[in-house]
Design goal:
Layout lengths: L2 E6 L7 H14 L3 E5 L3 H6 L2 E4 L1 H4 L21 H14 L3 E5 L1 H12 L4 E5 L15 H22 L2 E6 L6 H9 L4 E3 L7 H13 L5 E6 L5 H11 L5 E4 L11 H19 L5 E6 L2 E6 L14
Parallel strand pairs: 1-2, 1-4, 4-5, 5-10, 6-8, 6-9, 7-8
Antiparallel strand pairs: 2-3, 10-11
Helix pairs in contact: 1-10, 6-7
The structure holds adenosine-5'-diphosphate and 1,6-di-O-phosphono-beta-D-fructofuranose (FBP).
Length: 308
């Protein structure tokens, strides 16, 4: 193996830069060159890349986002484009590492079917990839939500307000569940079927009766919007709701140590897999260890707690 490529794709996730570092550092020990494609599959299509070394990647390991840039590339979904890209990559490189979420995995699978040696690394704040205990960025997003809501609650407590806060997660409820627990929320709506006006009313009444100074409901974006939550509660009870969408504050921020360390491990393992001649694999955490699985098995995401 002489030269490999790496790209970050889909929603950025803190820890992506650490994964690139783990890959580049391991590659250097084996004398293998690494190029980083700019803006995910967009850079792959246009041949936009830069040479990566441990020295030029290291300054980014403590920073959120991805210094390579990322994109949601519609162009790459076209099979003729995939074919052209695969032909070029097969001439120029000995392998490719794709760092991204479940959408990016599908692109990685296509490339591997077209003969490009491809390994995928799970990176998304949603933690919505099947058969891995963790995705890169999730723990940092949990930290972001908890610290932000802690601040918001100081005002809520002063006014005895009821907050309905919508968190990200696309179709998955992990971010809502983890942060709701950490914040001792009065209710966590992580799936649509978790929502019941009477339960929310009861929770508010119990909370007030217990003398709590504020009420907090954490809502997964895939379950319902904070605006919908407010509408239901205000139409069907006497209570008023302050609704918030936390938005992209959840996705940025310097990665927590766990996301950096996991990134290093994923990057290193991705290199070792390519070096062993593997392809069509994605990395995962199982019982706390980094393992490799077939990307194809992830197609249906059937064993995750996805929302309908
Ligand atoms: N079925 C597919 N075939 C080929 N490429 C895909 C497919 N689905 C997604 N992709 C590529 O992966 C990119 C990222 O996917 P997206 O779902 O936006 O984010 P994530 O990877 O974070 O889930 C898409 O913009 C597209 O370029
Ligand atoms: O930033 P965008 O493009 O509006 O996308 C928002 C979506 O991206 C995420 O933040 C991350 O999703 P992915 O990692 O799957 O791309 C979701 O939680 C959210 O639904």
């Amino acid at each position: 193996m002489k030269k490999i490529g790496v790209l970050t794709s889909g929603g950025d996730a803190p820890g992506m830069n650490a994964a690139i570092y783990g890959l580049v550092e391991e590659a250097e020990t084996q004398g293998v060159e690494v190029v980083g494609f700019i803006d995910g599959y967009e850079g792959l299509i246009d041949g936009k890349a830069k040479a990566l070394t441990p020295a030029n990647v290291k300054p980014h390991i403590g920073i959120g986002g991805t210094f390579l840039g990322t994109a949601r590339s519609e162009r790459f979904k076209d099979s003729a484009v995939q074919q052209q890209v695969a032909e070029r990559i097969n001439e120029e490189l000995d392998g490719l590492v794709v760092i991204g979420g479940d959408g990016s995995y599908q692109g990685a699978l296509k490339l591997s079917e077209l003969g490009v040696h491809t390994i995928a690394i799970p990176a998304t704040i949603d933690n919505d990839i099947s058969r891995t205990e963790l995705t890169l960025g999730f723990k940092t997003a949990v930290r972001n939500v908890v610290e932000t809501v802690d601040i918001m609650m100081q005002s809520a407590a002063s006014h005895h307000h009821i907050y309905g806060i919508e968190v990200m997660g696309r179709r998955a409820g992990d971010l809502a569940e983890w942060t709701g627990k950490a914040l001792a929320a009065d209710g966590i709506i992580s799936k649509t079927e978790d929502f019941s006006v009477s339960q929310v009313r009861e929770a508010i009444e119990m909370s007030f009766a217990a003398g709590k100074s504020y009420q907090l409901f954490i809502i997964a974006e895939g379950a319902m919007s904070a605006a919908e939550f407010k509408r239901h509660i205000e139409n069907e009870t006497v209570y008023g709701i302050h609704d918030f969408v936390l938005g992209h504050i959840q996705r940025g921020g310097n990665p927590v140590a766990e996301d950096r360390m996991l990134g290093f491990d994923f990057g290193k393992e991705a290199f070792n897999r390519l070096s062993a001649g593997d392809t069509g694999l994605c990395l995962a955490v199982e019982a706390g260890e980094v393992v490799a699985q077939s990307i194809e098995d992830h197609r249906a995401f059937e064993d995750r707690r996805h929302l309908s």
